[in-house]
Design a protein that fits this description.
The protein is an alpha/beta fold and about 210 residues long. The protein contains four helices and nine strands; from the N terminus they run βββαβαββββαβα. The longest helix is centred in the last third of the chain and has 14 residues.
Amino acid sequence: MNYRIKEIYFTQQGEGKNTGKDFVFVRFAGCNLWSGKEKHRASAICKFCDTDFYGTDGVNGGVYETKDLLTKIKSLWVSMDSEIRVVLTGGEPLLQVDDSLITALKKANIYIAIETNGTLKAPKGIDWICMSPKANTDIQLTEGSEIKVIYPQENLDPADFNNMNFSNYYIQPMDSKDYEANVSKSVEFCMQNSNWRLSLQTHKILGIR
């Protein structure tokens, strides 16, 4: 299978439980919540999207066969850690990520993390699943490593996910013109709900990718 990739780059994870760990990010093109009316914005479901996932014209972007994608990932790993780690993200990576790709990554001894909106089932064998639900969607993925709610969202109550089988629960302030207010609301929510922790986009704070 060929995979449409927007961009591939090495950086440190800036959000959630894995903040500060080295990863190669593989951003898959396309999103099932995208209206298509704008090149890189999602539909009314999540207008706050801050990611360009349209096309294949980003850094190291293109259409990759599995072997070539693994070669590119390995070539970008410049960490002192011996274990190569990859984040499969988007857009919505599960539109493309399949059993074949997961098997190939595992055979290459690559640690696999994925960032998904939770509207699609995930293949088996993924080491770290981060699900970031969006309001007014049909969530199909109900277990994983981490749930990260962008907050606040109209018609989405984080408490509705308390009974799902995730190991870590995070609230992340929505990056918008109301960011300071969103931070205050996020902190207040976490203080009132002890199973939720605050996640900040530290890569934006530090000015890295």
